[in-house]
Specification:
Blueprint (H helix, E strand, L loop, with lengths): L2 H12 L10 H31 L6 H21 L3 H20 L6 E4 L2 E7 L2 E3 L1 H19 L7 H5 L2 H14 L4 H17 L4 H20 L2 H8 L13 H12 L25 H34 L3 H25 L17 H69 L10
Antiparallel strand pairs: 1-2, 2-3
Length: 440
């Protein structure tokens, strides 16, 4: 054996986790898609925020360096989440929800602060945190826990509504909407519907939930002058160019000015204080301006690929809890991405939701990366379960083959004994019988 083969075998023995040759392509794809979006987001935040960061005396790299530190912390969270078994998430889902709800209620204390009319933030030790981002993941895990643990009782609408929707989901969503954050509430509502759909909740209950949600959104819109103006300015010239229409108009102009190939990385004009939240809610406009339709299409393709990979994990999930969790995270992250893109394209009114894994914001980034870690944990568990089943099937097959071979050998020995006895009998019959006569 060559020295190279010996070294390779020794390395495989010492680093089995690193040099695994049977790594699931779906798990690898989830890691790659998530980290590519995060890395791309850090680069685009650097480009979109350089001017405003300098004007705020943070230096050109101030905002981007903070985003990079958030990404590194999010990577640690993602790795840890990926190596925690799904059974642990299921066991502690109620406790996680209670903790996330208490964290969310801090926005109504003196720690809470209002940003752009939404009281959905808290400030601790100079850091601004958005508790509702962690509440999204806690809600998905808790709904999955309820659906999986009560699956035998959910035989009618009443048992499907109580306690999952009332009081559970109602309290969760109410804690967010009381802070006037309709965009985050809508995203969480879609995630809830995704959990219900992939959890095989009856269509009647889902339609009842959708109807109730539509009525609630209608009431929230008509009772808010700001929301009504945003809605009616959609697709029309409201004449408020310097006010309410400033951000969506300049976002659309930035996106349109990119053309097919864009003006080049770092060459955006909109980021020069023309477009508010250029590194956050409207970062897709900067992507379109600098990288053109090709770059914007590549981002959309990345989210579609992420959705495809999560659907593969969902279809291979071994239990209902895993399916519901992956379905909820899928609708949350990919659905929010397309809501954000729809806002930039002026298909939807301004809702104030960031582009997942790309936009600036530590809380949102860490929460999304943690959610992807949970999905990867479920994907790894699916792979391990499939490998174990194959190993058991192979072991059973070898045992059966061994028993069959042993039986054949025994049968062969028996047949050989019979043939030997037959030949012995035949020789005895052919030999002359000698009779001894004493007098002869």
């Amino acid at each position: 054996m060559s020295s190279t083969k010996k070294q390779r075998r020794l390395l495989k023995r010492s680093l089995p986790g690193v040099l695994k040759t049977n790594t699931d392509p779906t798990v690898v794809g989830l890691w790659c898609a998530s980290l590519i979006l995060v890395g791309f987001g850090v680069v685009m935040v650097l480009s979109a925020s350089s001017v405003t960061s300098y004007l705020q005396d943070k230096g050109f790299l101030g905002t981007a360096s903070r985003q990079a530190s958030y990404a590194l912390f999010g990577l640690v969270v993602m790795v840890v989440a990926a190596y925690i078994k799904p059974e642990v998430y299921r066991r502690f889902a109620p406790l996680l929800l209670v903790g996330a709800l208490l964290f969310q209620l801090l926005v109504f204390t003196p720690l809470g602060e209002e940003v752009w009319g939404n009281r959905n933030w808290i400030r601790i030790a100079g850091l601004s945190l958005q508790p509702s981002e962690f509440l999204k993941l806690a809600m998905v895990l808790w709904v999955a826990f309820v659906i999986s643990s009560r699956r035998h009782r959910m035989t009618n609408v009443k048992n499907e509504v109580f306690p999952m929707l009332i009081p559970g989901a109602a309290i969760i969503l109410l804690s967010v909407i009381l802070g006037q954050d309709l965009g985050t509430t809508i995203v969480m509502g879609f995630a809830l519907l995704g959990c219900m759909w992939f959890g095989n909740i009856s269509l009647k209950t889902i339609m009842l939930t959708v109807g109730t949600a539509l009525v609630g959104v209608f009431v929230l819109v008509v009772t808010s002058e700001n929301r009504m103006r945003r809605l009616f300015s959609l697709g029309s010239d409201s004449g408020d160019y310097s006010g309410l229409d400033w951000q969506p108009t300049h976002g659309l102009w930035a996106l349109a000015s990119g053309g097919l190939f864009g003006v080049g990385p770092g060459n955006s004009s909109a980021k020069w204080s023309w477009l508010p939240a250029a590194e956050n809610d409207y970062i897709f406009a900067i992507i379109g301006e600098e990288l053109g339709m090709i770059g914007a299409s590549a981002v959309i393709t990345a989210y579609v690929a992420l959705a495809f990979l999560m659907l593969r994990v969902l279809n291979r999930a071994k239990d209902r809890f895993s399916r519901v969790v992956v379905g909820g995270v899928l609708i949350w992250i990919v659905g929010q991405a397309f809501i954000n893109i729809g806002v930039v394209l002026r298909i939807l009114p301004v809702l104030g939701v960031p582009l997942p894994l790309i936009s600036y914001g530590g809380t949102a980034l860490v929460a999304c990366m943690g959610a992807m870690g949970v999905v990867i944990s479920i994907a790894r568990n699916n792979t391990a379960a499939a490998a174990k089943a194959d190993s058991e099937a192979g072991g059973s097959g070898k045992q059966a083959a061994g028993r069959s071979a042993a039986g054949e050998r025994d049968a062969g020995r028996a047949a050989g004994g019979e043939r030997k006895a037959g030949r012995s009998g035949a020789r005895s019959a052919a030999d002359p019988v000698m009779i001894y006569t004493p007098g002869h």
